[in-house]
Amino acid sequence: NLSDIDQDGKLTAEEFILAMHLIDVAMSGQPLPPVLPPEYIPPSFRRVRSGSGMSIISSSSVDQRLPEEPASEDEQQLEKKLPVTFEDKKRENFERGNLELEKRRQALLEQQRKEQERLAQLERAEQERKERERQEQERKRQLELEKQLEKQRELERQREEERRKEIERREAAKRELERQRQLEWERNRRQELLNQRNKEQEGIVVLKARRKTLEFELEALVSVASLRLRPALETLDTTLIPAIFHLLKNDKKHQLEGKLQDIRCRLTTQRQEIESTNKSRELRIAEITHLQQQLQVCSKPQCSASEYQHPEQNGDSLLTLKRALEAKELARQQLREQLDEVERETRSKLQEIDVFNNQLKVTRVCVCVCVCVCVCVPYPNLLGCFVSSGSGLPYSACHRAPQLY
After folding, report:
1. What residues are paired with 56 via a beta bridge?
2. Which of 81, 170, 270, 324 has the fewest beta carbons closer than 10 A?
């Protein structure tokens, strides 16, 4: 409304320049006047008072001004020939004003462009700063997250290591308890075997003493019987001796079978104990071999990595494993020595039992002969019957008695 002076809805060149100037004023932050000041009115809309150098502006003349009629070509040529008039000066001033306005408009446009560039640059710098801050915060957040994850992994590794150590301690305690239990059982078993051996030796001593007593009695009986009953024995019938031996055989057979069965049971028990001792020794040897293999495996591949990471812990573990291996080796040697001793004792017992069996057989035969002789002594009539029947019993029948028995 301020730039359209003639209110025709169109802008001429001067009105357009005025509108651009008002736009620059408004963009610079200055308030626009409600009414157009006189100094903003273009020169073509002013009236020049004749005879003076001053211009008088009439507000009613702006609305009542009529468009100028074009001059004819002759008048224009005449004006070119005429000297410079006031209108020429006014037109020249108007052109200079337009140039000045154009310069100012260009300067304002350049300033506006620079301001826009400066604002855009500031906005880009602010965006870059915000982006850098966001990236820095993201980097810090990522580093913090990585630290937390690393800390969590370290805690997990520590818990896993403590769990593994606890399992190893439990296994070591269990193995130690099993070893103590096995040693206690072996000690008790060895003591039982020693007690049994002592009992067997005492029984053997008693049997040897009894055997000697029986031998002395047998010698006395044989000497007395041979002196007193030699004539009766020569006439004894051969059929009586097998009957007597048959009776004695049935009686003594059960006793001797019981004794032999007892001896066999003892031998079987000792053999089973020897077999169990051999099995325990083999198990100990296998366990020692397994521990040696583990020691070799632990000493070769784990030295490169474990020694640099946990040298003190690996040294303690290796020392503990070596001590356990030495204890196992010592226990194995002790068990082997004990087993050898038990085997030697068993062989000596078996030899003593065989000797005793042989001596028992000889003593049994001698006792049978003596009993046979003693049975024939209280019955002289029976002996006379045998003699009168003609079935004489030679003296060599007594020597054949062991074969008949």
Report:
1. 47
2. 81
Rounded CA gap, 383 and 230, in Å?
A: 12
Beta bridge partners of 55: 48
What six digits make up the tokens of 375?
A: 């049975």
Tell me whether residue 101 is exposed, middle or buried, using C-beta atoms within 10 angstroms of its C-beta: 0 to 12, 13 to 18, 19 or more: middle
Q: Which of 337, 339, 335 is nearest to 347 (CA)?
A: 339
Angular region, 84: left φ>0, alpha ψ -120 to 50, beta rest:
beta
**Rounded Cα distance, 42 and 22, in Å:** 13
Q: Which of 360, 341, 361 has its CA nearest to residue 197?
A: 341
- The span from the CA of 160 to the CA of 152, in Å, is 12
Nearest CA-CA partner of 285 in 245, 331, 324: 331
333: which 2 tokens?
Answer: 């040697």
CA separation for the pair 344, 370 (Å, rounded): 38
For residue range 28-43, what is the model confidence (pLDDT) as tens digits? 888 888 888 888 888 7
Q: Are 322 and 295 in contact (CB under 8 A)?
A: yes
| Whole-model pTM over 0.90 | no
Return the pLDDT at 243: 56
End-to-end CA distance of the chain: 165
Cα–Cα dist 296/291, whole Å = 9
The label of the residue with tokens 């403590």 reads 162
